[in-house]
From TrEMBL:
Protein name in UniProt: Secreted protein
Superkingdom of source: Bacteria
Record lineage: Bacteria, Bacillati, Actinomycetota, Actinomycetes, Bifidobacteriales
Keywords: Membrane, Transmembrane, Transmembrane helix
Spans traversing the lipid bilayer: 12-36
Length: 200
């Protein structure tokens, strides 16, 4: 008559070994091949790194003039991946009698993606509104965006972005923020990305 204790021990050993083998196979298939249990963060991490890198200019911002006004000092060194590469006084809007007016260029380092700005300040918001209305009335392209400019929840002006009437690959954004008017021109994609990030 066989030893029942020995037989039971053998069966228990077989069950334990079989269970261990199944667990090892499951772990191997989950984490080594094909890796279904491992969360793939590679794509997200690469995407995040790309976005972070894209948000930082690859070129240095130009220095501001030594006698820069408070308005000029407020021009950011960088906007997303654009660096300020030039600031000079201009008279584009001289007939509207701004207190001060500047031509400002921002670049990624690729000249074809440069955006050109004209920024003017008036002594009061009504003067700025008059210039804003004049500029926007002259825009004839398709409207890409428009709305209100709000600062701390208060409405300080309006904005509009339109394609260039002569070249729909280009665009113009114009906005008024209280006493200051901004105009940005450049490639459509560049303008759309730039104006939304500009902090003034």
């Amino acid at each position: 008559m066989p030893n029942s204790n020995s037989s039971s021990s053998r069966r228990r050993l077989i069950v334990i070994v079989t269970a261990a083998v199944i667990i090892i196979i499951a772990l191997f298939s989950a984490f080594v091949w094909p890796g279904w249990a491992m969360k793939d963060n590679g794509g997200d991490a690469r995407s995040l790194q790309t976005q972070s890198a894209a948000a930082t200019p690859t070129i240095e911002a130009s220095a501001l003039p030594k006698n820069a006004s408070e308005l000029v000092k407020a021009f950011p060194d960088a906007v997303a991946n654009y660096a300020r590469t030039g600031v000079e006084a201009t008279k584009d809007w001289e007939s509207a009698k701004p207190v001060e007016e500047y031509a400002v260029t921002y670049s990624t380092g690729a000249k074809s993606k440069d955006v050109a700005m004209v920024i003017g300040q008036w002594s009061n918001s009504s003067g700025a509104k008059t210039q804003y209305d004049k500029l926007t009335a002259a825009l004839e392209g398709d409207t890409l965006a428009h709305g209100n400019v709000k600062v701390s929840g208060a409405n300080k002006g309006t904005y509009v972005v339109k394609t260039d009437a002569d070249d729909d690959a280009k665009a113009v954004a114009v906005w008024q923020n209280d006493t200051v008017v901004f105009q940005v021109t450049g490639g459509k994609d560049a303008v759309m990305a730039f104006y939304q990030k500009f902090p003034m």
